[in-house]
Amino acid sequence: MVNPVPTIQSNLPTILPLHSRNVAVIGAGAAGLVAARELRREGHKVVVLEKDNQIGGTWVYTPRVETDPIGLDPGREIIQSSLYSSLRTNLPREVMGYMDYPFVSRNRGSVDPRRFPGHMEVSKYLKEFARHFGIHEMVRYETEVVNVGLVENNKWKVRSKTRHDCYNDEIYDAVVVCNGHYTEPRIADIPGIDSWPGKQMHSHNYRVPEPFQDQVVILIGNSASAVDICRDIAGVAKEVYVASRSVADETYEKQLGYDNIWLHPMIESAREDGTVVFRNGNVVLADVILHCTGYKYHFPFLDTNGTVTVDDNCVGPLYKHVFPPVLAPWLSFVGLPWKVVPFPLSELQSKWIAGNLSGRLALPSQEEMMEDVKAFYSKLEDSGIPKRYTHNMDSYQFDYDDRLAEQCGCPGIEKWRKQMYNAVSKKRRDRPETYRDEWDDHDLILEAEEDFIKYTS
Ligand code: FAD
């Protein structure tokens, strides 16, 4: 592939040979789909290996749950999606969608035109995206990657398994990992839990409230899912106790608007007689402990001889959360950061990866990238940020996005999107019951709609 690339110093355009690589993308969720699109746009040959029989990853809702409801048994059948039936997005459509393929209701027959739609609408959007950009033809369905390892000439051997247990080895120049990180449950450590007789489960396996009819449920966590699920369950359960690590130890509050939800600090211990003791001294006889305690990064197929490790949920070392310096740009990860707007972030990371693989963009030297990673880790440590928060980008996601965009030579995150995200985040905290149906950022919606015309007309 040969493309004209203007140099900065000379007025004459220089013709640089850009390279087309054979690239394997692992996973056809929101990250893998946009990675495939960007890689192909850049001229690479792309195969997307997807273990499911359809695209969408997280957004493919299934009523099925795993055989081990708490998700500890390594031999359990893995279900990718963690969606519950009532789930509506926690971001408005305008913010959530890819930058050049807005998440608007495209078909008149749209089943869910709400601004914070249900999960089926997101699944439909991703399917439309895949159809629009012809991504299906790159995807190999029902093909699970079981091993990725380096072979001679710095190439990658990717071993995959089909539905009929046929194994296939293939050689690629580069591998882009897009396997998602909301599937491997992380659970809370509770003293005495081994002899507690109740039922434990993780929110990964929560689908509908009915099984909790008349039960006493303790829900651990205060993330977006915990906020939704405790309200979902409160409609049928006898009592719901929310144990949160981010409240003071003496907390004991009834949830506003509910007469059967109470907020507590963390659990101190669980006892053989079925009771659970909270740090505020309260004791509750409970039927179920539901861990809404997040997920772990998990790459069971990745064999880098220790070059990339997961240590206390820090995947590293990774330059800018994407490239392991020693293996860059031949191995990369899309969509690792959390507390972000994932679709546009994955879109920008994918452009960056595609450009670095072709040679259109250049990374710093291995040593410089490693120095950058070390400096980043030191900064986190000096600020007292635990390692497990390494990929939490809450406070700087848009700076990160914009820096990627600058390197790729493409537009950064729109001003309205940043403002809308900040406004919604505040509303979600202040008014969790109503933020999805009541808003006042009409001016920003108008700005977004004007912006979208260039992609939808
Ligand atoms: P996934 O969607 O998990 O996709 C990974 C894909 O990789 C899957 O298709 C999987 O089958 C495949 N795969 C995995 N392992 C292999 C393998 N070994 N071989 C082959 N294929 C493999 N984001 C928002 O923007 N708005 C929201 O409102 C929102 N709500 C959320 C609610 C919940 C409960 C959860 C869990 C997440 C939510 N998110 C939300 C974040 C969401 O995860 C991202 O939006 C996005 O879907 C992540 O996409 P992904 O491609 O990184 O991962």
Automatic annotation (TrEMBL):
SUPFAM superfamilies: FAD/NAD(P)-binding domain. Its cofactor is FAD. Its EC number is 1.-.-.-. Keywords: FAD, Flavoprotein, Monooxygenase, NADP, Oxidoreductase. Belongs to the FMO family. This is Flavin-containing monooxygenase. It comes from Xanthoceras sorbifolium.
